[in-house]
Each structure stands twice: as C-alpha cells, then as structure tokens.
C-alpha cells in the first residue's frame, strides 16, 4: 500500500483519481480549498482518507502541504498535481491578479510541491510525481494566454525534473488531456472566449475516469508524457515545428470546433 496525495481532489478528475487509487488499496491524502466538496469526495471514495483544506495561492498553506509531503513519519509515495484553473479572456482584459492566479495555481504550486516531494523521495530512492496538465501545453490557445503559459511552463518543469530524479529511481510523468467533461469545462465554455479548440478531434469531452485510467497506465509504463487523445498531441507537436502555420491552421480548426462547442452548450441546457 502506498500513500497518495492529490491536489484539487474535490473536482471531477480529482474524484476519479481518488477512486482509482483507492480501488488499488492505496491510502489517500486529499487536498482542496473547498472543504464541503472535499468531504463529499472523501465520502464517495468509501475508504479512510486524510483531508487537508488548503489554498494553493496561500504561501502558508503551501508550506503546510510541503511539510506534509516531506513528513518522515507518514511519507507521501505518490504526488499528483491535479488542481488547476482557467478563466478565458483576451490579453489585456484579465486583471493582473487573475493572470497571476493562473501561474500561481497551475505552475508555481505544482513546482513547489514537486520540489518538496523530490527532496523526500530522493532520500528514499523511490516515489512518483505526476501532473495533470493540458493539451494547451502542446500548443497555444487564443484568449487563454495565461492558461497556456502556465501549462507550457509546467511541462518544461516536469521534463527537467524527470532528468534530475531518474538516477534516484523516482518517477515523473504527466497527462495532457483535451476537453474533459467537468464543471471546470462547463464554466470555461460558458464564456464567449472559451476556446473551441477544446472540441477539435473530439465529438464529446472525455469522462474524468478516462483521465484517471490514463494516469494509472502512464505510471505503470513509466511514461513521461501521455496525450489524450494521442492524435491531438501528435498534431500539436508537428504544428509547433512550423510556427508560421499556427494562425491559419488554428483559425481553420476553431471554425469546426465552434459547432461542437455550441452543441456542447446546448447539451448542458437540456440536462
């Protein structure tokens, strides 16, 4: 049995991850800033969990989480950086604090928590650090520059971390999903600036349990990066080799994605 710490555990993907790890008999340390939602997740998991209420933008809360991760009495074997935010909007329309929030939650917090995990896991010469990223780390999204920047940065950090920790037997990895059927996606798409690229190549957003299953498989195989779907990741990687094509190609894809976005929104209204 291992002990797994999951950030953003109150959300759709967080719940799916908690259920998946619990089904394998692992102990859970769940953290989120929403106490009621976190308690609901713990109840749905159906096994004993440790709950930590923490805001990833709060320095003292991050220190508490870091200390918990490095605790020698109850070591964390697997860290899953799952928490994230996205508020779409053109550059210049988002206020400075909201832009900083994307960096704080999506990149800085995972970096600091991963650093704490790295210190402890290097000494034990075992452990795993995993991050739930986004297809936005593979290619840019218009009207989501702050979000894209945070995910691009986290991708670089995780890749570098994998090189540092490999000699110590510590695994590092991440998944890069496209649209996931969660309240976070619904809130993003409710904005007129929500990117229709979320729907390119996918008739429907994937359920959270598909992401959780991909995490389990990636950890089992020791994969650094897993794109969901793989075709989107391949296309994004190729497109980034030719930056001059970004604007015309993505503009074309947005037109097709716009139809699927509207269909998605209509589906939400009928639920």
Automatic annotation (TrEMBL):
The keyword Oxidoreductase applies. It comes from the Bacteria. One of its GO terms (cellular component) is membrane. InterPro entries: KR_dom, NAD(P)-bd_dom_sf, Sc_DH/Rdtase_CS, SDR_fam. Its EC number is 1.1.1.325. It is an enzyme of class 1 (oxidoreductase). Residues 2-183 form the Ketoreductase domain. Keywords: Oxidoreductase. GO terms for molecular function: oxidoreductase activity. The keyword Signal does not apply. Belongs to the short-chain dehydrogenases/reductases (SDR) family. This is Sepiapterin reductase. The lineage of its organism: Bacteria, Pseudomonadati, Pseudomonadota, Alphaproteobacteria, Rhodobacterales.
